[in-house]
Design a protein that fits this description.
CATH topology of the largest domain: Rossmann fold
Number of helices: 9
Number of strands: 6
CATH architecture of the largest domain: 3-Layer(aba) Sandwich
CATH superfamily of the largest domain: HAD superfamily/HAD-like
Helix content: 40-55%
Radius of gyration: 17 Å
Largest sheet: 4 strands, parallel
Structural class: alpha/beta
Distance between the termini: 24 Å
Shape: globular
Order of helices and strands: HHHHHEHEHEHEEHE
Amino acid sequence: MDGTLIDSEPYWMAAETELVEAHGGTWTHEDGMGLVGNALDASAHVLRAAGVDLGIDAIVDFLVERVRAQVLGRVPWQRGARGLLSDLVAAGVPSALVTMSFRRLADAVVAGAPPHSFSAVVCGDEVERGKPDPEPYLRAAAAIGVDITRCVAVEDSPTGVASALASGARTIGVRVMVPIEGRPGLSRISRLADLDLGLLGRVAAGEVVDLLVE
């Protein structure tokens, strides 16, 4: 969700900066980039190390509520996201949203998506082990009743890519804010707008494509 379908990473970074600075610390853009794709509890531990004198749950609640408030005002869809979701619905392809964001934030995004976009939603506060563990993707595949090896995961962070590949899903990495290094079996594209049903079908059939423009 974050980064892949919606351009929300700046929201997260702004919330992190606000929190760290409120506790007398300093938070750089590079610090924020280091948290892209992380499970929220893992990010909270990093923020505590940066000087935030709050419990893990309190840090997570602060971040989620700050970002949720902005998303409720405007869902910042990535270019091509809504069109791709609509095409998948029209083609009868079941899709699952797999995010380390919490349910209350994911629901705000799903409400703004084209109708029936997601047959299942797996959130960070509903799994025992978040990304890069494969559990979130395995749960999503089970929820939509499709063998994981017949699924295509679309990710924008090394953490998410690791989770998807470990699950056995065909995986496409989209370069958004952080580099997507080449890995065996990983397809790569430069932007979500490059992804269509034809390319998804090729990857689902086992082809590994690399359309990343360096």
